[in-house]
Specification:
The protein is an alpha/beta fold. It has 12 helices and 24 strands. The model is unreliable at 206-227, 257-300, 408-416 and 479-486 (pLDDT under 50). Bound molecules: adenosine-5'-triphosphate.
């Protein structure tokens, strides 16, 4: 039971506890401890993840014999030594075992072969020796097997498992030919060994074993394990210390800059470029429906309002308004500007716009013409040689990303803490954002957003979702680096970030759905035991484990058990389909909207 789990964890801590291994043992349940996850129904520990916690020494017997409901065990990147405890064989539910980056030694323990539910096994970067046993054949569900950077020897037997991932590189005493079932993997999986045959070079004499192991040093880019002299080690240590100090210094300077930028209220006028022409005379403005209104008197460049503008003001008013930096994005910096008590706007100061006046105007008018309740309306723009500003409605509740991931998110009063998001709110946000995107996609088969992510889904006071930043990717130069798109939202087929499509949007939206359901940011590193992003991680978890492994524990704790789980399962299924590797397998946005509506309907029917 849970108390046995707790005492097992405490035994583990006292045996291998490292510096940062801090658990608050006063809490009666271990389920909230760092790295520990429990199943809400069985109330047992199902996951233990302590990557890089400076754990050291041998794991004694008598721990895993109690943690019998464990499904995920990650002790990677520690300094654990010795062999694996035999009672690990009691964890017959174990799916994922991540022990890479330790100093475990001895043969790969046969106890592993009794854990027939294992799907991922990573024993890389240890000191395991001996042969790779045929016992792996028992693990019929195994999809990943990582054994690189060990001291394994002998030949590779034809395990003939349906593996998706496999790596035995840098085991210099592995030899013989690569069996057929493993030939589908890249040569990277076998480098630094004495293996031969596809995908490496053909065996010189099929069936015979090359007499000399290939030196790891001959393989470019591969880690070499070679003895170094004292002088070289001293040089490396001094170099590392100096390098580390330099990095700390640079980070301190950067953080100072960033911190002051974010917290200080800035006078909007401070970013006024020298050459913005502010006209002497203000011109009365009227907003026409469906057409842009040039606020233009004497040919001087002015703020240009769109037909949807509810309130019109001058550039001068904007520049005089008190302003605050909201954040820096891909396309420039966003500011909140307070024109008067009733007029709050978000101003985006674009960088890297290289296109001329006319082209910019044409493209921005398309953005300004978009009109849907789930889009953040663009109200006006300013274009001059050096300055490009976009004026949007200010969204008081900030972004979905902040709401989900910023623990001390402030709503109204500072320090109020983050408001937990229940399923009703999350599902409504999903539907609203999907409708906004569907509207964009319905304009033209080629129209797409290009930068869908949770920081671009903003919220009104009543938690209605509005998609922002649409059409901006087309305004800035393709040379612009788009760091946000490489952090888990980018579809696998996208090699050039400026090439966007509706299917790419669907993928990114799918990641947002997974984010809403898991509460995890796509870049969350704790779950990335294999460097998997959020989408790949969710795809790797079997359906029967969604409840204990995937769904946000905050969500589960807010909802009466079972009441909305059906909806959550359907939504997760949709998120998985949207994030299919192959674009053709993903649904189109109109279908996504329909599916969310349906699952909400089904949910309310069930409750009602
Ligand atoms: N209209 C708005 N109302 C309120 N907050 C906004 C508005 N537009 C942007 N923000 C906030 O300002 C910050 C910066 O936004 P910006 O769109 O410039 O960058 P981003 O969303 O982080 O990245 P990207 O430029 O790739 O979209 C974000 O936290 C965003 O939530």
């Amino acid at each position: 039971d849970l108390s046995a789990d707790k005492s097992a964890l405490l035994t583990l801590r006292s045996a291998v506890g490292g510096r940062t291994f801090l658990w608050n043992t006063e809490q009666t349940t271990p389920c909230n401890w760092t790295g520990v996850a429990c199943d809400a129904t069985t109330n047992r520990v199902t996951a233990l993840r302590l990557p890089g916690f400076a754990l050291s020494g041998n794991i004694p017997e008598g721990i895993f014999g109690n943690l019998t409901n464990l499904r995920t065990l990650s002790l990677r990147l520690n300094s654990l030594t010795g062999t694996l405890p035999l009672d690990l064989s009691s964890c017959s539910d174990l799916r994922r075992l991540y022990l890479q980056g330790n100093r475990f030694s001895g043969e790969i323990p046969p106890l592993l072969f009794s854990l027939t539910n294992l799907v991922r096994v990573d024993l890389g970067e240890n000191e395991f020796s001996g042969e790779i046993s045929l016992g792996f054949k028992n693990l019929t569900r195994l999809k990943s097997l990582y054994l690189e950077n060990n001291k394994l020897s002998g030949s590779l037997l034809d395990l003939d498992l349906g593996l998706d991932q496999f790596n035995v590189s840098n085991n210099s005493f592995l030899n013989g030919s690569i069996p057929k079932s493993l030939q589908k993997f890249d040569s990277d999986s076998f480098l630094g060994t004495s293996l031969c045959g596809k995908p490496l070079d053909v065996c010189s004499d099929e069936g015979t074993v090359p007499s000399q192991p290939i030196s790891v040093g001959n393989i470019p880019g591969k880690r070499e394990k070679k003895k170094l002299s004292g002088g070289v080690i001293a040089g490396i240590v001094i170099g590392c210390v100096v390098g580390f100090l330099l990095i700390v210094l640079v980070l301190m300077v950067l953080f100072r800059k960033k911190g002051s930028e974010r917290t200080r209220d800035v006078d909007f006028a401070t970013f006024k470029p020298r050459d913005i022409e502010v006209p002497e005379e203000k011109t009365a403005v009227e907003a026409n429906e469906h057409s842009t209104v040039e606020v233009n008197s004497s040919g001087t460049k002015r703020l240009v309002f769109f037909g949807n503008a509810t309130k019109v003001f001058e550039l001068e008013d904007l520049l005089r308004a008190s302003a605050e930096v909201l954040g820096k994005g891909t396309f420039g910096t966003a500011y909140k500007a307070v024109l008067d008590a009733a007029t709050l706007v978000a101003v985006k100061r674009l960088k890297d716009v290289t296109m001329g006046d006319r082209e910019f105007k044409e493209k921005i008018e398309v953005v300004g013409a978009m009109d849907h309740e789930n889009l953040v309306p663009l109200r006006a723009y300013y274009y001059s040689g050096d300055e490009k500003l976009l004026v949007f409605d200010f969204m008081p509740m900030g972004s979905l990303s902040a709401l989900l991931h910023e623990r001390c998110y402030v709503i109204g009063n500072k320090g109020a803490g983050r408001t937990p998001l229940n399923w009703e709110v999350r599902a409504r946000i999903a539907l609203g954002a999907a409708r906004g995107l569907d509207y964009l996609h319905s304009q033209d088969p080629l129209s797409s957003h290009g930068n869908v992510k949770s920081s671009n889904i903003l919220l009104t006071n009543s938690h209605d979702a509005r998609v922002s930043d649409f059409g901006l990717a087309q305004l800035v130069g393709s040379s612009t680096t788009t760091p946000n798109r490489v952090t888990g939202y980018r579809a696998p087929e996208v090699t050039d970030p400026s090439r966007v499509s509706q299917k790419v949007d669907v993928y990114s939206f799918g990641v947002v759905l997974l984010e809403l359901l898991t509460g995890k940011a796509p870049t969350n590193s704790v779950m990335n035991e294999e460097g998997m992003d959020l989408a790949r991680w969710v795809h790797s978890v079997e359906r029967e484990e969604w409840r204990s492994e995937v769904f946000d524990s905050e969500l589960m704790s807010l909802e009466p058990v079972g009441s909305v789980e059906g909806e959550m399962v359907e939504m997760l299924q949709l998120g998985i389909e949207c994030t299919e590797q192959h674009p053709d397998k993903r649904p189109v946005m109109v279908e996504v909207v329909r599916r969310i509506q349906e699952l909400r309907q089904l949910g309310s029917d069930r409750v009602g």
